[in-house]
Structure formats: C-alpha cells, structure tokens
Design brief:
The chain is an alpha+beta fold. The chain has one domain: Cytochrome p450. The protein is 48% helix and 10% strand. The strands form four sheets. The protein has a five-stranded mixed β-sheet with strand order 1-2-10-7-3. A three-stranded antiparallel β-sheet has the order 4-12-11. The longest helix has 27 residues, at 192-218. The chain starts with 6 loop residues before the first helix and ends with a strand.
C-alpha cells in the first residue's frame, strides 16, 4: 500500500487484508501524525502510541471492557439489539462470568479465585510435565527433514498445557483443538450467522467440562477444576456456571495466542540467523527471546475499550460511551519505547515492556504459563538443534485480531 495517501484512505482496521499488506508503515505514520486517530466508519479512536495504550489499560474504571472487546461487537450491534453486552456471551454458559469482559471491582474478585492455579508451585509442576511432552514432540523431528512446526508442535503444546492446568484427560487433545479453532471466529471476517453457529458448537464444550467436573468431584486432583470445586466466591462455593466458564476460558483463550507465539518465535529466529546463533551461544537469552518474540509477533493485534465518562487522550476529546481501539501491534513498534523497532533483537532490554499480554488490571492471567511453555520448548529445542531454515514463507492466517499463520514449514539443523 502507498503510505503517501491520506490516512483516512489507508486505515481499514476491520479488513484483515489491511494487516496482511504490511500495516506497520501506516501505523508509524499514525504515531507521528494522528496517534489518537478517529476511525469514522465505526466512530472509534485508534490508539497507536505505547503510552496512550498504557494510559487506558491502567485505568479500568474509566475504560470498560464489559461493553465489548472485538470490532464485531460494534459491527453486529444492531443485529444483536445493542444491549450493551458483548456477543461473546453466546459462547459461554448462562450465569457464568467471563473474566475478560468484567470490570472492577468484580474483575479482581474473579481473578482472585483463579490465581492459585497460576502459583509458582503449580506452574513449576506443569513445566516439569510439559518438558516430557516437548521431548516427545521434538524427538519426532529429524535434522534436515521438513516439518510443519505450527501443526506438529506450536499448535499442540498449548493444548497440553491447558489440559494440565485444568485437569483434563491427555487423550482429548483433538477435541480441545477443535474448540480452540472454533473460537478463532471471534475477530474473524465472518457473518453473525457463522458466529452464532460457532457459539452453538461451544455447548458441547460446556457439556464436556461438566462431565469432567463430576469426575473431579469424585476424584479431586491438583488442578484448576479441583480447586474451583472448593473455592469460595461471594462467601459461597463457586457456582457451576462459573466453574464451567473459568475452565472454558482457560482452554480456549490462551491456546491460539500461544500457538502464534511459538510459531512466530521460530519464524523470527529462522529469518534472523544471527539472533539464533546468539541464542545457541547463550541460553540466558531465552527469557528476552520470548519477550522480543511477543513484541515482534503481537499474537492479538488489538482490543476495544469503552469510555465510562467524557475524557480526552492527548488533547483529543472522547465522549462517554465512545470506544478506543488499543492497537497493541503498533505500540509494540513504538520508536519512543523500542529503538529501531523494526529490528528483531533478542538482546533488547526494552522487550519486557511489550504489550502483547496487555497491561494493568486486565493483563493476561496466563502470561506466566505462556512464558513457562515457551522457555521449556526453547530449552529442549536448543538441546537438539543449532539452526532453523524456512522452507517457504508461511501462509498467513486471515483474521482481524489474530496475527498468526496456517503453517510454518521449516528444517532444523544440528
């Protein structure tokens, strides 16, 4: 796309092709010329500067998540009756509370219930179990032989991690993968009818979780479902709709984004062999490699927030009820925070400031688990290989929100 055109002609945030045609030059221009950009087709303000995104996410009382996170909430508002609620509710059990679209103070109360599942002790145990699984996955990869990294590894590890976290059978990986893929329709370029059909498919996931709740009730273990059956919320046991809701969220909400990270990290290292060489020579760079990969990929491009009262950002007035669109993928390339932002650099100290996990009250609850997954996988990978070669450019996933691929065909070298 020619970035000499007027910004109003260039910015098409609800069109997935906008992102596939390399939106980064447009975002760089928006950061310079209109960091609080009014997008007239949806009457929302697109925020492209790191500091403005942080300003919004640090004030969850001013900026509501409960009125929708996806552009589809705006596009289908008339068809849904514009009740002020997100259509995402159709994917989950009635009476359940979806933590991602809950405002304070309720958000903190729900987060408290889930927090023990992400304790250091719990994540250490999951990490040990994931290491064994990573070895199984990587032992099937022969040096010099083509492999679809996304399909064979990146898509599988998050599903196993979610199963371990929640306490689900390891044998149900394919079923969980199917439900995770169905959730990809949130933010995709699909009709409301397609979304409602996907929501119906999630009724089978609700039934599946309910079955496993009864199993855990009879034979509790050291997992999320067992914990939730004993946990208290509002001075009473957590309701069954919330138990199912929390488990469903943990299954599907993180698997697609983690899949994108694990694929994107390999893609970036293959495209930058000098960085791969640094990592091979110094494994202490694994944590910064993960943060830089999160910055570079930005698995979830953007989410909405709604102003709860009249306010302004950088001098631009925003009325109560108007939305802002937090363009994380632009904030992650903000030159004021990340010098030479188009350079992939695993030694970059600023990478820890990446926005891909969100920030503030709504920062991704599973961020620590994602870091554990990625670290274990990279450690095991480096035990076997010293080089990565792309066979072909991966096929991009056509999606408004998700930045990912349909495949990732590579060859590993010793």
């Amino acid at each position: 796309m020619s970035i000499s055109a007027d910004l109003t002609d260039l910015v098409k945030i609800e069109d997935p092709r906008f992102y596939l045609e390399d939106a980064y030059p447009v975002f760089a221009r928006m950061r310079r010329e209109a960091p609080v950009f009014h997008y007239e087709p949806l009457d929302i303000f697109v925020l492209t500067k790191h500091r403005h995104i942080r300003e919004v996410t640090s004030n969850a009382r001013m900026w509501s998540s409960a009125r929708g996170l996806f552009l589809q909430d705006l596009q289908f508002a008339a068809q849904m009756g514009d009740s002020g609620q997100s259509f995402v509710e159709n994917f989950f059990p009635k009476g359940g509370e979806q933590i991602g679209v809950t405002d304070p103070p309720r958000h903190a109360e729900l987060r408290r219930v889930l927090a023990p599942a992400f304790s250091t002790r719990a994540l250490t145990k999951i990490g040990e179990q994931l290491r064994s699984y990573c070895r199984e996955l990587l032992d099937d990869i022969a040096p010099g032989e083509p492999v679809d990294w996304l399909e064979q590894v990146a898509a599988m590890l998050p599903i196993r991690a979610g199963s371990l976290l929640i306490g689900l059978p390891e044998t149900d990986t394919e079923r969980l993968r199917y439900w995770s893929d169905e959730l990809e329709k949130l933010g995709a370029d699909v009709s409301l009818e397609d979304l409602m059909a996907a929501a119906k498919e999630f009724q089978s996931l609700q039934a599946y979780i309910a079955e496993n709740v009864e199993i855990k009730r009879a034979n509790p273990g050291d997992d999320l479902l067992s914990w939730l059956l004993e946990a208290k919320l509002d001075d009473d046991l957590v309701s069954m709709p919330n138990v199912i809701m929390f488990a469903m969220t943990m299954i599907v909400a993180g698997s697609d984004t983690t899949r994108a990270l694990l694929a994107g990290a390999i893609w970036a290292l293959a495209k930058h062999p000098d960085q791969m060489a640094k990592l091979v020579a110094d494994r202490s760079l694994i944590p910064s490699t993960i943060e830089e990969s999160m910055r570079w990929v930005t698995p979830a491009r953007a989410f909405l927030r709604t102003a709860m009262q009249d306010t302004e950002i950088d001098g631009v007035p925003i009325a109560e009820g108007q939305r802002v669109y937090l363009m994380y993928m632009s904030g992650n390339r903000d030159e004021d925070v990340f010098p030479e932002p188009e350079r992939f650099d695993i030694t970059r100290s600023e990478s820890i400031r990446q926005l891909s996990f969100g920030s503030g009250m709504h920062m991704c609850l599973g961020a620590r688990l994602v870091r554990v997954e990625a670290a274990v996988l990279l450690e095991e990978l480096l035990d076997r290989f010293t080089g990565i070669e792309l066979i072909a450019e991966p096929d991009p996933f056509v999606h408004v929100v998700r930045n990912s691929w349909n495949d990732m065909k590579v060859v590993f070298h010793r």
